[in-house]
Specification:
Helix content is 41%, strand content 22%. The strands form 2 sheets. An 8-stranded antiparallel sheet has the order 1-2-4-5-12-7-10-13, with helices on both faces. A 5-stranded antiparallel sheet has the order 3-6-11-8-9. It is of the alpha+beta class.
């Protein structure tokens, strides 16, 4: 495990930390989980091999993928000021959550006032997100119009169906995989915030939405207000929760209004604004002073590889093809 010179005194999980644990025994796995006060019990015979934990820490969040090779019971305490959400990646995993089988459309949810207690049979891959209670409550109220704790019962929170849980788990697993491959992904505060936004928006937007949307006229008025906000703040890290708070609407109302007016959800619209802004800068470039990477960063794409891929998919050509295009084709400036 390595840390990038970041003071961790104010955080439950040291920000900027990358974690990779490989264990050949259950005792070794338990000892290396140094930020958790948990006890693990192997439930069936057989070697406990090929098990590992990998993940990252930001100032507000710990994101982990745990792979365990054998049936296990895990119990202990959730860290102070923290809420833990856990998503098995496969519906075939037989997980018991506090003495009840975890429903295929449920996510394990414990806060710091509760003890952690779940078990599983056979091998398991599970995504775990531990986040500041204050942060998750703030985002839940913005998105749903109600407290997170009002949506949990019996240590779980519900999604519309099993496919929603699988989809959320796989999206977050892909985010973690990309982050682990990038040595600079959790050094920049901006990129950490974008990572938090991506993970928490994916999780909270997957939860069964009980809010009642506003009427058509009101939600389209809200969508226009949100569109103006996105254009004004498009260079900043924006979460769906931030956007809901800015316009005073729930996620459901905002989503419906955007789809009705613009044909796409709000965060898809934001991505289009950023890509088109980047393309305008590249097309209008003169001389050799402008670098494509600088344009990408300006428009919120700090990972150049992902920017180049998104740009090619959106416009059908790499960003380099558009540099100085207006001057090369003698297109009059608009």
């Amino acid at each position: 495990m390595t840390q990038h010179g970041i003071d961790s005194a104010a955080s439950t999980f040291p920000p900027g930390l990358r974690v990779f644990i490989h264990a050949d025994g259950i005792e070794e796995m338990q000892e290396k989980a140094i930020f958790w006060r948990v006890h693990t019990t192997q439930l069936e015979s057989g070697g406990y091999s090929g098990s590992n934990i990998q993940g990252i820490h930001t100032a507000l969040m710990q994101l982990l993928l745990s792979v365990r090779s054998n049936s296990t019971k895990i119990e202990g305490l959730v860290p102070e000021r923290t809420l833990v959400l856990a998503l098995p990646i496969s519906v075939e995993s037989n997980v018991q959550n506090r003495g009840r089988r975890l429903a295929e459309n449920a996510i394990i949810a414990y806060d710091h006032t509760e003890g952690l207690e779940f078990s599983f049979k056979g091998p398991l891959k599970i995504i775990t997100v531990a986040v500041s209670v204050g942060e998750i409550e703030r985002r839940a109220r913005n998105l749903w119009g109600e407290a997170f704790e009002d949506r949990t019962s019996l240590g779980a929170i519900w999604l519309p169906d099993a496919s929603a849980r699988i989809s959320a788990a796989r999206k977050i697993n892909a985010i973690l995989f990309e982050t682990m491959r990038d040595p600079f992904a959790i050094v920049s505060p901006r990129r950490c915030r974008e990572l938090e936004n991506a993970v928490l928006d994916t999780l909270l937007s997957s939860v069964l939405d009980r809010s009642r949307p506003e009427g058509t006229r009101v939600r389209q008025k809200i969508a226009r207000k949100a569109e103006e906000y996105l254009r004004t703040c498009c260079h900043d890290p924006i979460s769906l929760s931030d956007l809901c708070a800015a316009v005073g609407a729930t996620r459901r109302t905002l989503h419906l209004g955007f789809v009705e007016l613009y044909g796409v959800p709000p965060m898809h619209y934001l991505r289009a604004i950023r890509l088109q802004g980047a393309r305008e800068d590249l097309i209008n470039a003169r001389g050799c002073d402008l670098r494509v990477t600088d344009v990408a960063v300006k428009w919120g794409f700090e990972h150049f590889g992902r920017f180049a891929l998104a740009y090619r998919e959106f416009f059908g050509a790499p960003p380099s093809a558009d540099v100085g295009l207006r001057a090369r084709l003698a297109i009059p400036s608009q």
